[in-house]
Structure to design on (248 residues):
């Protein structure tokens, strides 16, 4: 049995807003094994983004335990957390977060520089990552010269260039049309087939159905945690899916 690379044990997270206390997570527990493809779904304010921040070592629980690659994050200092993020987790965001002053190649090389990789090796590894996402011919372009789908592919190349165990994606198809979204989901599956764990936070039911496990969160608690047969990402949303998105 594959070992767990992500563990949340009775995780609670509260925030103080003026005189009020906001309960973002109310005792969330789950394990994600190496090589799983998981989606975390829920409406706005459900706690799914807070879960993402826990997995990405961007926040700490008020109570409970978070372990990434068998390391308890609350027992680590900022430097250790930064190393864990750089070596273990690759991030993909809806807004891409590419540096406009850098070329595509330089953007992909950036995590390798932080990891202390030699400059010549950085270039070679970044070029290979761009080849894998089909953008080798665009490596000397600037981000503003790319389409939304191409920018997301660059972001995926940047996330995978350090060969992390986990890819954590926050609404990676949210700014893309259906055809491009399908291509991006196909790319995530290609990465997953190499053994990389994929965790996608999404409100899109089609993305949720495309994974082999879907965790639904509501009001800071797990509503359901279902292992499923992945469905092919469709270009068209059903009436029920459109209604579900209206409720988000």
């Amino acid at each position: 049995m594959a070992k767990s690379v992500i563990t949340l044990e009775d995780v609670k997270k509260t925030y103080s807003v003026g005189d009020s206390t906001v309960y973002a997570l109310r005792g969330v527990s789950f394990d994600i094994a190496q090589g799983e493809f998981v989606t975390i779904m829920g409406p706005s304010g459900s706690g799914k983004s807070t879960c993402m921040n826990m997995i990405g070592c961007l926040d700490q629980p008020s109570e409970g335990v978070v372990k990434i690659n068998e390391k308890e994050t609350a027992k680590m200092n900022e430097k250790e957390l930064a190393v864990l993020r750089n070596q273990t987790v690759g991030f993909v965001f809806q807004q891409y977060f590419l540096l406009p002053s850098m070329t595509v190649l330089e953007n992909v090389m950036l995590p390798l520089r932080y990891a202390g990789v030699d400059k010549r090796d950085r270039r070679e590894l970044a070029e290979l990552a761009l080849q894998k996402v089909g953008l080798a011919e665009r490596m000397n372009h600037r981000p503003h010269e790319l389409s939304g789908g191409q920018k997301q592919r660059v972001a995926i190349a940047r996330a995978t260039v350090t060969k992390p165990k986990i890819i954590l994606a926050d609404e990676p198809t949210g700014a893309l049309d259906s055809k491009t979204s399908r291509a991006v989901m196909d790319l995530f599956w290609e990465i997953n087939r190499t053994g990389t764990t994929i965790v996608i936070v999404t409100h899109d039911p089609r993305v949720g159905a495309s994974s082999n496990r879907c965790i639904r969160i509501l009001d800071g608690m797990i509503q359901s945690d279902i292992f499923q047969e992945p469905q092919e990402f469709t270009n068209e949303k059903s009436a029920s899916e459109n209604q579900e998105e209206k409720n988000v």
